[in-house]
Give the backbone structure.
Amino acid sequence: MNNWRVSLGAAFLLSGCVWMLPYGDLLLVGNVPMFLMSASIACIGFLLVWPVKSIGFLWFWTVAIGTRCLLLMMEPGDDLWRYLWEGEIQSHGFSPYLYAPNAPELEGFRRDWWSNINHPEVPAIYPPLLQLCLRLITGISETILSMKSVFVVVDLALCFLLARRFGRVKGLIYAWNPLVIYAVAGGGHFDSLFLLPLVAGWFLWEESVEKEGVGQASERTWALFAAAFCVGVSVAIKLVSLPVLAWMGWNFLRRGQWKQVMIISIAGSAPFIFSWGLMWLLLGEVGPLLPSEFALKARGCDVVPWLIGLIWPVTLESNSWIVFVFALVVMAQIFWIQKCRTYIEYFLAAFFILGPANHAWYFIWLVPFAVASGNWGTRLLSVSGFVYFWLQHTNGLTGVWEQSIYERLLLWAPFLTGWAYFLAKQPKEVIPEKGEVHA
């Protein structure tokens, strides 16, 4: 039974990716329904392999690599055009934080694909290390394929780390995940760049802190430094990882271990400070690094803010209140949760549930942690998350970026139900026994 599941799962997954190839331009009216039909075929393959007990090396890597290579040829999402643009204008001496794509000063650098850039009136919102990565990639080759290839290579490295630590069977949750495969290889989103160092930081933390007493003290100190540095790299690529650094620091601060707090502070902030300084040296000026006003107003694919908006419409005018509520939740989680993997998983779940503007490729952030936990909410979201793309179909037909109640139910109900089941089955993983201390 195991062999036929693997074979049939691989066939469906590969077939779905092949069928998906011509429909990458999701802004083209009519493409989204065909894209979702193809994604459904790939999801059947993903579901088929969930019960398998073993999988061979060749099967695992042939499908993991093959599906990603197939979708490298796919038309990317509109975010990738912005990545190309922001990397290229840096080579001409312009900071993407100071000049939005439609700035008159940059008109002479526009390419034939410039009109594909989304929100051309908004300057860059991602941290400086990502901007330097984009500059490096476009400095080597200013093509879609080169940029997507970098994202895919990093994604495969993450597959390797997860399979090595948890085994290939559990690694299937990430390596054969159709939403991950599309988001990185097809859509060309850079999320693998910040996920790899975040996962590496989690692994190093477990070795240096949660297995305290294993190895020499000096080795544990260096592993702690490396863990904080890796998370710092993730923060310098995408700010969403920042609370993880705060959680790491609090674990030692609450016990008065100031040396470790200093190590985490220095190692965690170094990548951001270095990359900002390097951009300043290269460009002469960088500009504001905080998200623009756009981030405080954007809405879409939300659940709790949408429900509150139905009762209290004034909350739809700004996202400021959501930032406040989310900050309180993050603080509570930092004080409450004891283990690194658990903290990241719960923090990201809160980010999606409370977030005012989610995108399908955000959902892949949870998947590496579900490899360890087996979280059913994340597994189901890897399938139901494709419902998000109907937003682009609706927008193409009507110009309105708004999900119907049925779309929201199809997307969020599996996730929330799966999380409820996960919490019911594993409550002790979060709430330690009285007197128990996990660093």
About this structure: Residues 429-439 have pLDDT under 50 and may be disordered. Residues 299-439 form one domain. The radius of gyration is 22 Å.
